Amino acid sequence: MDVADTPIPDLFLLTPRRFGDERGFFSESWNRKVLTDLGIDIDFVQDNHSLSRTVGTVRGLHYQSPPHAQAKLVRCGRGRIFDVAVDVRKGSPTYGKWHGVELSFENGQQLMIPAGFLHGFMTLEPDSEIIYKCSDYYAPECDGSVRFDDPDIGIEWPLSGIDFTVSAKDRDALSFKDFQSPFSD
Predict the structure, then answer these.
(1) CA torsion sign, 65 to 165 to 158 to 154?
(2) pLDDT, tens digit, for every residue of 46-66?
(3) Which of 82, 114, 158, 166 has the lowest tally of Cβ within 10 angstroms?
(4) 58 near 83, Cβ under 8 Å?
(5) How far is CA 39 from the centre of its chain?
């Protein structure tokens, strides 16, 4: 497993090794011991899997507040997505900064997002599947979202000039100015 830093501390890009032959490949997408040895020690308790049918589907920017804050390990099982994390840890030198990366079936990369970040993605291919591990169970009372297109965050989504497919929850999400972060550094 290769681990690469990003411009935001504690946010990592993981690339599991693939072992291939004429049949296809095998890849170990998560190994607690390997990642603990690399300094990433998170107890994941839930796996989620979603399908987004159309190009330009945006999900996010989501978070779960304490006491059910979630770290996530996100990968794309089919298709291609632009995955984004926004640091919202009060006191962090990168508060309000975002980092995005293309995750795809082809590149096999994963984004390790710690608790204290907003998370969202945009599909770049039809029928893209997103698979992610969470460090806490879903708790609706702790669920929240911030607008994916908020100008104060300024995410540079790779697709423009199209009508995005967005849920009502995400369309009606808080502005970044109105968001009161429940996370500290």
Answers:
(1) negative
(2) 999 999 999 999 999 999 999
(3) 158
(4) no
(5) 19
